[in-house]
Design goal:
The chain is built from six helices and 15 strands. The chain is α+β, with helices and mostly antiparallel strands.
């Protein structure tokens, strides 16, 4: 299926569960995304992968924080993903390189921990997303002190994702902003419970997606938190880019955690990835 056809099938599915009017509101939250899994030979989504070396255009400066180089965590090949994203990103965006300051893995530079302690974990200074046109991008050797994780090519399975249980996006569906809406609270609770029950109707929806490693779509916060912004910015103005569960070679603090990167939706649509921010979930 292509996105428009799938969205129509999703609306029909939700109408059977919630009625036509509520279905229209619920489906408005559905975002195209991709479950990322280790690729079999020949099945990778272009150059998409965890770890390895970044794919950058010649002359691109390596991102740093307080003089310590960031580490490449992942590459997404948006040329391979673009048809399902249905115009979400500008044509020709190419490769997205995801960086963060590695201060926790066994590979990290000792100075990184000291630098990281000076910032909140979601500080923009700690991360970067750098786009590179596919025709000009070359695999780039990292500088000293930057961690290099073993590359894992990704296959990408398309689908539609919905917000996590406590994501403030559910509040945008209320008939009156800021006023309790019993119907929406029921649906949010139904979706939350159903995601934990593989036999429930909700997980049988068309192109269901609920993944630990996820490109685009909506972020999942296992702690029960939500992507709120410390500076008071409305998180509903941001779009999710990438989610990584713990990998063998890295962790982001505490007892564990999942890594996310997000970006203002307007910046995403214009291709300004300099506005991307890290939004980790640490427990």
């Amino acid at each position: 299926m292509e996105p428009t056809t799938t969205r129509a099938a999703l609306h029909e599915f939700c109408t059977a569960l919630f009625g036509a009017e509520l279905a229209t509101r619920v489906v408005s939250l559905a975002r195209p995304g991709f479950e990322l899994t280790r690729a079999a030979p020949g099945d990778a989504a272009g150059n998409s992968r965890f770890g390895g070396h970044p794919m950058l255009e010649p002359g691109t400066p390596w991102p740093t924080c307080e003089g310590v180089p960031l580490s490449l965590f992942a590459v997404l090949d948006t040329d391979a993903l673009a048809p399902w994203l249905d115009g979400l990103i500008p044509a020709g965006t190419g490769l997205l390189n995801f960086f963060y300051l590695d201060s926790e893995s066994e590979l990290c530079d000792p100075a990184a921990a000291e630098v990281a302690s000076e910032f909140f974990c979601d500080a923009q200074e700690l991360g970067a997303v750098i786009a590179a046109r596919s025709g000009r991008a070359v695999e780039t050797d990292p500088p000293a002190r930057s961690s290099v994780f073993t590359p894992i090519p990704w296959a990408a399975s398309p689908g539609f994702a919905f917000p996590d249980t406590y994501d403030p996006a559910w509040g945008t569906l209320r008939v009156e902003p800021g006023i309790y809406d019993e119907d929406i609270e029921y649906i949010r609770d139904y979706v939350s419970i159903s995601n934990l029950d593989p036999d429930n109707d909700w997980v049988s929806r068309p192109d269901h997606i609920l993944a630990e490693n996820l490109a685009f779509g909506w972020s999942v916060f296992p702690t029960g938190g939500s992507p709120t912004r410390r500076n008071g910015q409305d998180p509903n103005l941001y779009h999710h880019l990438l989610q990584l569960s713990d990998q063998d070679e890295w962790r982001i603090g505490g007892d564990g955690g999942w890594m996310h990167w997000s970006i203002p939706t307007e910046a995403l649509r214009s291709g300004d990835f300099s506005q991307a921010i890290p939004t980790p979930d640490i427990w």
